[in-house]
């Protein structure tokens, strides 16, 4: 089986970075010390070469991850080895903080890349979640995370069929929560909006879908993929196989071109390093704050505060200001951690391209 790598996102820009005597391959899945990759001549299971092992021992962020482009080197013994991870254009990084551990935090200083080279980040938020409406705060949080990864967020208000009246008003509220971000309603059940989501992938782009459990992510991926690649909740519950089904297919090529990365890690991603992302998702408040009388205005009781004025006039919803304060506190806390700062520096070499891309065309597919 041979693959057209351009359909998997391979570009001339990346080709320029390929070391001599190697062939490119996209990482579909990783497994301690080895990866499943897709090269032009087929799929391979490859072990990491000495260079990758050395680099990742020093910094786990250097470990290959799903979505990476890798350089494979042919060994005399007749197999490929993963020789190098090519520079990433975008990356979802989980900080060295596990919120599941005792006390809620365990700062081990070990960053981990969950997915790389993701062009589009679909933020799925159901229009109705049991009896609750779409959660705007969660959208803000995931959009911030999306910007921080370097990908372009697109908000999908899923299960739009559950919202009979007022869908337009809901979409307006979501647009306020995510300025500069495309917002669409999707019903995988009826197929509404699904072709539009596929269009974003433009034949060779890579996307992830973030969102709470039950948002309809698997159902949407199935609708995009056109065949039952992943089983939805009911099926999984029935056969008791848990989430294994998605683990086996982490990089999913779509029939119309483009790819979706769906991994348990990406599904569980919450709020990690969102420093820059907060500024982007709250660009309206940042703009207001720049007009405050005092440069270091805390927007609490200072005279000449443009933020408070907007709050009073109703231009700025109070919920949104609170959401901004909360995310800023978390981002500040993350930034105060030395290891988080270090990790950022190590990553900056991978991220500069990203920022340029973000500046040049952040909203359109
Ligand atoms: N009414 C309606 N229900 C939907 C739609 N999409 C998905 N569902 C249902 O919502 C439930 C959850 O869908 P999933 O696709 O499993 O959600 P998920 O986001 O993948 O959830 P996790 O795997 O837990 O992260 C299932 O019962 C689906 O049948 C939709 O467009 N409309
Ligand atoms: Zn102010």
TrEMBL record:
Transmembrane segments: none
SUPFAM superfamilies recorded: P-loop containing nucleoside triphosphate hydrolases
Entry note: cofactor: Binds 1 zinc ion per subunit.
One Pfam family of this chain: RsgA_GTPase
Primary location: cytoplasm
Location(s), subcellular: Cytoplasm
Cofactor(s) the protein needs: Zn(2+)
Domain EngC GTPase: 116-267
Residues given in the record as GTP binding sites: 158-161, 211-219
HAMAP family (alphabetical): GTPase_RsgA
NCBIfam families xrefs: ribosome small subunit-dependent GTPase A
Family: Belongs to the TRAFAC class YlqF/YawG GTPase family. RsgA subfamily.
Protein name per the record: Small ribosomal subunit biogenesis GTPase RsgA
């Amino acid at each position: 089986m041979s693959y057209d790598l351009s359909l998997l996102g391979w570009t001339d820009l990346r080709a320029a970075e390929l070391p001599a005597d190697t062939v490119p391959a996209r990482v579909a899945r990783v497994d301690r010390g080895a990866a499943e990759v897709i090269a032009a001549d087929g799929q391979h299971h490859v072990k990491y070469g000495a260079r990758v092992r050395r680099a990742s021992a020093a910094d786990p962020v250097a470990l290959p991850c799903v979505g990476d482009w890798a350089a494979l080197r042919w060994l005399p013994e007749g197999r490929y080895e993963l020789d190098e991870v090519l520079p990433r254009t975008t990356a979802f990084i989980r900080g060295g903080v596990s919120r599941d551990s005792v006390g809620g935090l365990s700062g081990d200083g070990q960053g981990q890349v969950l997915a790389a080279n993701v062009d589009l980040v679909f933020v799925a938020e159901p229009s109705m979640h049991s009896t609750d409406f779409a959660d705007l705060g969660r959208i803000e949080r995931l959009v911030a995370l999306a910007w921080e990864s370097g990908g372009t967020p697109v908000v999908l208000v899923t299960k739009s069929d559950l919202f009979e009246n007022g869908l337009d008003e809901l979409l307006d509220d979501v647009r306020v929560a995510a300025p500069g971000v495309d917002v669409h309603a999707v019903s995988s059940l009826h197929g509404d909006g699904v072709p539009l989501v596929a269009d974003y992938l433009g034949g060779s782009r890579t996307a992830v879908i973030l969102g709470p459990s039950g948002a309809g992510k698997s159902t949407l991926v199935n609708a995009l993929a056109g065949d039952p690649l992943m089983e939805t909740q009911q099926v999984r519950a029935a056969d008791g196989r848990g989430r294994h089904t998605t683990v086996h297919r982490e990089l999913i090529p779509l029939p119309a071109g483009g790819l979706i990365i769906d991994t348990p890690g990406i599904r569980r991603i919450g709020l990690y390093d969102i420093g820059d992302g907060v500024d982007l998702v709250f660009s309206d408040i940042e703009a207001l704050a720049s007009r405050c009388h005092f440069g270091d205005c805390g927007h609490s009781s200072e005279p000449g505060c443009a933020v408070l004025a907007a709050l009073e006039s109703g231009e700025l919803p109070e919920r949104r200001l609170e959401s901004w304060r909360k995310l800023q506190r978390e981002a500040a806390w993350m930034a105060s951690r030395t290891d988080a700062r270090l990790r950022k520096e190590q990553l900056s070499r991978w991220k500069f391209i990203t920022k340029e891309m973000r500046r040049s065309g952040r909203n359109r597919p």
